[in-house]
Amino acid sequence: MEKIYDIVIVGAGPAGMTAAIYAVRANMQVLLLDRLSPGGQMVNTNEIENYTGAGKLSGAELSIKMFEHTQELGVEFDYKTVIDIEDGNPLKTITCEEDGTVYKARAVILATGTVPRRLGVPGEDTWAANGISWCAICDGAQYRDKEVVVIGGGNSAVEESIYLAGICTKLTIVTLFNLTADPKACDQLRKMPNVTIYPYQEVLEFTGTDRLSGVRFKSTQEDATERHVPCDGVFEYIGFQASSQAFVRLGIIDRTGCIQADARMYTSVPGIFGAGDITVKHLRQVVTACADGAVAANSAAAYVESLK
Question: Is 0.85 surpassed by the pTM of this model?
Fold first, then answer.
């Protein structure tokens, strides 16, 4: 007999894992799916200091703690890549890439988060994952005592730059605007002796023949000065785009690719809920993702009970 879940949660980042915890505590039959290791973008964060009650810890550590919590409560988890969701009445059909696996559920919470945005300039595809990285905690160690360029000036760029500056001989930051991260972090970065910051710059090209050798960029100011900075590696932090391609048919995605959900995490499709960074929202942080997950699970559980 085909198993029917009360709630299937797509995405095991902080929003998805929190939703799973709240849903299973509401006596729901829950399945948590993710194509990658639990934690989402949180796994790639070197240091988290603003998650209430946790103190200072790495994103990987917090990811493990959250996932262990789901397993202690008996949440069923599987590595699957969701490629389509069909809105049935009353059951939803979740189709996965792996072996065409199909799940049935009364409600679905979409919490697939975001993926790093790319510049789309020459050389980026050539050196992607072979000189250009989007995760300092994953790849930073290989650039110890080498020269590195970071693209971007937001919170992720600045926080990861502080980490990289501690292990690299020289760190250059190239950003389209000025540093826009938390002032305290920006001040800390500016005081580091091996850091050079180029604000208001447009990246033109990643150079190299046999390997990545540098970054070419020019000023967006009137002088339009062009520079080439040699480096051994590059880390890009220029924002994210929503991982929502599998949900387009549902008609709940806005022009930016994010899910439109109300304060209770309801979308316009009954039984489909959004949570975390994939939704339209002002602040994307671990703590706000967790809050979304809790609200979405509460709403989804109430929806499932109404069907029963």
Answer: no
